[in-house]
Amino acid sequence: MKELEANDLIQRTVFPEVPPKVEYELTDNGRSLRMVLDPLCDWGRRFVQTANEDPTESTSS
Fold first, then answer.
1. Is residue 57 a part of any domain in this protein?
2. Which long-range contacts (C-beta less than 8 Å, at least 24 apart) are formed by 25-31?
3. Three-class SS of the chain
4. Global pTM value
5. Tell me, what's the pLDDT at 42?
6. Model confidence pLDDT, tens digit, residues 5-61
7. Could you tell me the CATH number of the domain that includes residue 33?
8. Are 33 and 9 in contact, with CB atoms under 8 Å apart?
9. Is residue 54 part of a domain?
10. In sequence order, what are the beta bridge partners of 10?
11. pLDDT at 60
12. What is the distance between the alpha carbons of residues 3 and 28, in angstroms, rounded to a whole number?
């Protein structure tokens, strides 16, 4: 998280309360990565779905 903050990808907000509260949000730079990360996430979901399919089940009738 510290590296993401140092690279201006996230913003960390600390609230002066007990117990301590910290919130993180994407910066404009962080949001700009969505165009790269969304297709990667889509690929990962398809990969997991394929990996979880039972290879003994027949897909043809």
1. no
2. 30/4
3. CHHHHHCCCEEEEEECCCCCEEEEEECHHHHHCHHHHHHHHHHHHHHHHHHHCCCCCCCCC
4. 0.62
5. 96
6. 999 999 999 999 999 999 999 999 999 999 999 999 999 999 999 988 877 765 555
7. 1.10.10.10
8. yes
9. no
10. 26
11. 56
12. 16
Characterise 56 by phi-psi region: left (phi > 0), alpha (psi -120 to 50), beta (else).
alpha
Output the pLDDT for position 59.
57
What letter represents residue 22's amino acid? Answer: V
Q: Does a structural domain hold residue 24?
A: yes
- Per-residue pLDDT, 57: 67
Residue 28 structural domain? 2-48
* Whether residue 19 has a cis bond before it, omega within 30° of 0: yes
The amino acid occupying position 59 is T
Q: How many domains does the chain have?
A: 1
Q: Is 31 among the domain residues?
A: yes
